[in-house]
Design brief:
By secondary structure, the chain is α+β, with helices and mostly antiparallel strands. Helices cover 55% and strands 14% of the residues.
């Protein structure tokens, strides 16, 4: 039977053609896939190895730079006159001679990467430390673990060791240090040494890492320097890797059955070797997937071809013969027929199926909800509204309509208690409760215009009067009892036609906003509420906000809270329109966010994900409580910040600049004034003020120049000298860059424009003041 079927299959020309094309395409896909994989694998060593080598070189430069800077400091210390004098003095005079070197060491040790700097005197085993000062016996120092290396220090011009802090300071008990020691040589004799302790964590935090690679650092003795925790492989395995790679720039290794590409480089400063291991699985991941996909496509094409052959010869002609017999009952069946005979019949069947599919896709409830959403947001025109109304709302009357807004009270606080999926389920439950509650007596459609609310479009099924306010109150109780969710409802005036629904929605929204004064879980009708508030639409004094901000910046939390409570009481007394209250609160919170962002301060919990929508679902008492809490916490944070060392340093720099505006001062002068390095001064000032020292000083000078230009009759050249510019043209360029106007034009616009000492140039002159 099988041989008969195969003979029949290969006798058909169409079957042979399908089989030939299938096998050819499959073979072509397989050859291309295997060839591409082989080519990619051959080029892997050279092309994908380059980024890892570059990353190792970058990290090598980072560590070399850090140790060069530390070594330079050690060299500077060894040649410092006061240090040389200390080395040459008698033991009994050590304490007196150690004072000046101690100040010098403390100055050098201000950089964040330096833990301490010590000067060792071998003749009497005394030392000077940037942290502990002078010690007559170095074994009395808090940390003297380096004392066992004295022999190595004398023999080597530069010694680098990794060690753990062993001193008496409990806070530094687990601190890892990298100690650099350089001997002090006089007349060919090693008389002492300079020891610089670098912070291990700080140094290696500067290194760049790659998510798919592992990096290791070993010293000359083969000891692991980095990392110190969470080793990806046992040290025994790494010893095998070191042996295999030897001095080669890269090699392929295996660890625990996994293939890796190992790259290494050596430091000419420390002698360290940096090694990176990149999983070959990561490097070959994409090409392996591509190869497997091509092979899969090859197999799939074979299966599809075989299936097509089977379907063509055994499946398609059976229904064809039956259809032909039904369509032509008098026609004798002969042969297998032709597939083209099925085209008219199949076309009709497909047409019918497409029509039914379109109807199935038009989900009426969802389309009605989308229509109401577009209607209240005014996203569709009148003609489109009429067309969709007639198509979607068959069985509804032309009017009137009721519009309700059901809003979750304190929505932000409520949402914080649930995950997003749970929130969606609860809102879905609210929607079902609303629909089931109103459906017996009303036609119902719901939409979701906001996260906190549902808008409900209602039309009574009968013409009898229905008490909607009472029904809405029962709905509130039902949601509270079933879901433990507090909601409020706003009702607009009835809309006489579908085109007026947007206005009814706006009225319901205004009615709902009055929960600000009356609290949660209430029904508010626009017709009943609006006359009560119409008289309170006058402008409101904005002084309270400025006073709150001033109190916050002055760390006067009590004053800020008093102003908030006074504003709240005044708003409640005058019954100010809720929308105005929301705008006031939003303006204040935006100011507070700006203050926190400018200073890099942590945000209070209430402002972590703030949007204007947050306050519209709260009542006035809770808004007042929230604002008071925010002001108190931010005031405390700002007050603590003003006591910080960095803030006080920045203020000292600003005071120095203000006192020396007329002098030709620069960054070096400011750094010397506060006894800090230039880089530290720049970083601290940038973090505290958000601008550079140069820009701040320039703005101070230009502001002072503006005062002199508008308040005196001095010449522009004299003013330039008074604000620190030795050259009048330099002053004019700087002034115009900041103020977008020349000093002369600025003076012309001031109240002293007719009495200044520099007369204006005649109009016919070809040289304008702008060109100075």
């Amino acid at each position: 039977m099988l041989r008969f079927r195969l003979k029949y299959l290969f006798k058909n020309k169409q079957t042979r053609l399908i089989l030939m094309l299938t096998l050819s395409v499959s073979l072509l896909i397989t050859v291309i896939g295997l060839f591409s994989y082989g080519q990619y694998r051959d080029a892997l060593d050279t092309e994908l190895n380059t980024p890892n080598v570059e990353l190792l070189q970058i990290n090598l430069d980072v560590t070399n730079r850090a140790f060069r800077e530390a070594d330079n400091k050690a060299v500077d210390v060894s040649f410092q006159p006061s240090v040389i004098q200390y080395m040459n003095t008698d033991t009994q005079d050590n304490a007196a001679k150690a004072e000046e070197p101690q100040v010098y060491l403390r100055t050098l040790a201000t950089e964040p990467d330096i833990h301490s700097i010590k000067v060792l005197k071998f003749s009497d085993q005394s030392l000077i430390s940037s942290n502990d000062g002078y010690m007559a016996d170095w074994e009395e120092a808090a940390d003297y673990a380096w004392s066992t290396w004295i022999g190595e220090i004398k023999e080597k011009p530069l010694l680098i060791k990794r060690r753990q802090y062993t001193g008496t300071n409990s806070k530094l008990g687990m601190t890892e240090l990298l100690t650099l020691a350089r001997p002090i040589v006089q007349d060919g004799q090693t008389v002492g040494a300079v020891v610089v302790d670098l912070d291990y964590d700080w140094l290696f935090s500067q290194m760049y890492t790659h998510l798919s690679s592992y990096q290791f650092v070993y010293n000359l003795e083969g000891e692991l320097i980095y990392p110190k925790l969470n080793l990806p492989f046992p040290l025994e395995n790494m010893k095998e890797v070191l042996s295999l790679i030897d001095v080669s720039p890269f090699a392929h290794v295996k660890i625990e059955g996994q293939a890796y590409m190992a790259n290494q480089t050596f430091s000419n400063v420390t002698g360290w070797r940096l090694i990176s291991l990149v999983p070959m699985e990561q490097l070959l991941k994409n090409v392996t997937i591509a190869r497997n996909m091509m092979l899969s496509l090859s197999l799939i094409s074979i299966l599809v071809g075989c299936s097509a052959i089977y379907y063509y010869n055994f499946a398609s002609f059976r229904p064809l013969k039956r259809i032909n017999k039904l369509l032509n009952p008098g026609l004798k069946s002969g042969g297998q027929g032709n597939l083209y005979d099925l085209e008219p019949v199949i076309g009709k069947l497909v047409g019918d199926f497409q029509s039914k599919s379109l109807v199935a896709e038009w989900s009426l409830p969802e389309l009605r909800s989308k229509f109401v959403h577009d209607l209240i947001t005014r996203s569709i025109g009148t003609q489109e509204t009429g067309a969709k109304w007639g198509h979607y709302f068959e069985g509804w009357k032309e009017g009137p309509f009721e519009v309700l807004i059901v809003s979750i009270d304190r929505h932000t606080q409520w949402a914080a208690a649930y995950q997003e999926e749970d929130q969606m389920l609860l809102k879905y439950a609210i929607n079902n409760i609303i629909v089931e509650y109103f459906q017996p007596a009303w036609q119902v459609v719901t939409a979701t215009p906001q996260k906190d609310s549902l808008v409900v479009l209602l039309q009574p099924r009968e013409l009898q009067e229905t008490e909607l306010t009472e029904n809405a109150g029962q709905l509130i109780d039902m949601i509270q009892n079933l879901l433990n969710i507090s909601v409020s409802v706003g009702i607009g005036n009835p809309a006489p036609a579908i085109t007026k629904v947007a206005r009814a929605y706006a009225e319901a929204n205004l009615a709902l906003s009055h929960r600000l004064y009356e609290g949660y879980g209430r029904v508010r009708h626009y017709a009943a509420e609006e006359p009560r508030y119409a008289e309170s639409l006058q402008a409101v004094d904005d002084t309270w906000k400025q006073e709150v901000l001033h109190a916050l910046k002055s760390s006067a939390a009590t004053t800020g809270v008093e102003w908030i409570r006074r504003w709240s009481a005044d708003a409640r007394k005058k019954v100010i329109q809720p929308q105005k209250i929301f705008r006031m609160v939003d303006d204040l919170l935006e100011e507070l966010l700006a203050i926190a962002g400018a200073g890099g301060h942590p945000l209070p919990e209430e402002l972590a994900n703030y949007t204007r929508h947050q306050v519209t679902t709260m009542d006035l008492s809770e808004i007042e409580q929230m604002l008071c809490g925010i002001v108190e916490r931010m005031s405390e944070e700002l007050g603590q910040h003003r006591q910080s060392k960095e803030y006080l340093l920045a203020q000292a720099m600003i005071q120095y600049m203000e006192n020396h505006l007329q002098d030709n001062i620069g960054l070096q002068d400011i750094a010397s004034h506060v006894n800090m390095g230039i880089s530290s001064v720049s970083n601290i000032f940038k973090e505290e003020t958000g601008t550079t020292v140069y820009d701040y000083l320039t703005n101070l000078r230009i502001d002072k120049a503006c005062e002199l230009l508008s308040g005196s009759g001095m010449k522009i050249a004299d003013i330039a000298m008074l604000v620190g510019y030795q050259n009048e043209n330099s002053f004019i360029r700087a002034f115009r860059k900041i103020k977008s106007i020349t000093p002369g034009k600025f003076r012309e616009n001031s109240k002293y424009s007719k009495t200044y000492a520099d007369p204006p140039k005649p109009r016919q002159s070809s040289v304008s003041e702008d060109s100075e």
